[in-house]
What does this fold into?
Amino acid sequence: MTAEQNGAEQKDRSPSRRAVLRRTFWRQTWWVIRKELRVELRGGETLWMAAPFAAMALLLAPLALGTDTALLRRIGPGMLWLVVVLFGMTVTVRPTSIESRPVRDLLTLSGLDPVAAFLGRSGASAALLFVFTLVLTPVMIVLYGPDSAPLWGCLLWLAVGAAVALGLLGTLVAALVTGLRSRTALAPIMSVPLAAPVLIAVVNGTENALNGQPATIWLLMLAAVDLILLIAGVMLAAPLDETTR
Amino acid sequence: MASHPLVRFEDAGYAAAGTLILRGVNLTIEPGDILGVSGPNGAGKTTLLRLTATLHRPTSGVCSVLDADADTRPEELAAVRRKIAMVGHFPAVWPELTLRENVELVSRLRGDPPSEDPLRTVGLEALERWKASRASLGMKRRVEFARLLTWTPRLLLLDEPHAGLDAAAAPLVDEVVGRVAANGGAAVLVSHDPGRVTPLITRRILVSAGEVSEEIR
Amino acid sequence: MKTKIDILQRLFFLITAAAVVWGLYLAARAPGEATQGDAAKLLFVHVPAAITAYLALGVGLLAALWYLIRRSPAADRMSSSAIEVGVIFTVVTLVSGMIWGRAVWGLWWDWNDARLMSTAIMFFYYMGYLALRRSIIDPEARAGRCAVLAVIGFIQIPIVHYSVLWFRTLHQGPTILRPDGFRSTMDEEFALSLAVGIMAFVAAMTLMLTSRLTLSRLQDARNDLSGLGPPVGRGVTAPFMGGPTMGGPTMGGPNG
It folds into this structure.
């Protein structure tokens, strides 16, 4: 098929048909999010398994580092984010979100847009990671007693930015290890290095927020990371989908 | 004038990871055809089915399915795939979702209009709130057939459709296959048990050691 | 035909060897730096290794993009070979950086040095790439997924390079590639030694890359030859009943 024919076909497409396609796309995205969250609600892998495990890490770290109050006060926020980045990976590659080959075939033949599937899964993972962070924050405050009176609004945005970045990243990496036996060992080594900029931005941002200074520059950096991952994911979703059959 | 074939294989071959699975396949499937496929283990029956479902692309030769081939653009391929249904070896269900949700999710993703309760038709209405992880193989198979009752595919591909189904549920296969053929579509049934599919099929092919041959009845 | 390529390869090997020797000679002759002494000469290894690593990984990215557009097995071979070679030079960068840090600051691992940290992160990421390659058997799936991973991973490189500026740490800022232009701050002799060092490293990288490519090509060719024999279905035969493991009078083993 020549480029001209392609162009002619594109023009031929009426706006109403495009609107239908767009509606289909967002409807599929929405149903993928719904399905992921419903499965999580039933299995409870994030809230009842990953979160307590991560809380245990927050509890054990002072035993290894020393229980000096001044030290703990200083490292508390950093520990929280470290735990969110590392243990958050078990949230994004949670076993219940892994689909068997017959189910993947079914989804392909149902006309599920790979980009809609990517956005839906990332959205669900980001929501779960945000809740995960919300659950761990009071645990950190109780155990480490960081200096209070921070800019809460700023912290909230940092948590959202980090959850979105980790959700996108984890979903991309989960797609890369689809169907592989060694996926649980492989996924973290591939995703955690890429999460380093997220960790840097969110930790420095938190430090600013706790000192009562705005963290605009770090929020912008997080937003940039989110945007890059979003573009990468949207562009790579279809070619990646082709390799999972 | 002969009708336009739904599926056309021309000297198609398929190899994966350096291993040859199918070669020199020449096959056309016309509207109304109900094809019975048999052959020994490892002969390439499932691969033939996956090629027909556009889930694999041939590594040599041509395989055109509902006018989609290797040159088809992704969005058109997606539209073609929506007209194909496959029931594979292993049931395609989400274990954490209920039987009803398993049927509903697929129809929502497809965007099908709501229809009469398919779970009632397949006899699972009373168990609709069961999680699929608790269901037996036969129940999962019934769920898959319930999905096929909400729309009529152009191309229906069944791999051992009777496996796990009890005698009472076996007519579901006939019902779905019959409906597809009556609407100008075609069905392909892979089975080790020729006795069960014989009354349905119009043509029979044999896959043996990677080669496909037509059986004359 | 083949001998011509052989001669070319040998010639290139000699050029590489000469460049390495020349680079070493210049580095040995260069005067020690005022504050760092002879340790500063590690610059002639560290900087060329880092540049070569980026170059190889850059080739890996371009080949991965080429693969995603064209689906050509040659592009996959180029991408994976370049990344493998790039990982080796990343290790050289890391190790020379650590030795330098030990000599100058008295620490193997300088935590204030953001670039060392990000290079280590990059190293681990590409270890993940190599692990993914090993885990996928189907060549097409492997090529596609690894290409995607290489493209994602390359986002990391600018972050690594500019991390120095972001963190504003004690590390010596980028001397060669300044973001405000290519203004060299070194004297000429120093620059010459460094240039020869870079040349030698790039030549060595090219040599390794071509050898690795030849190896991949041979591996692929072997797979093609061995795979496309008889179809796999020929290997499945009817069960053999009546043998020693299947009933019959010999049941119970040879001593029975």
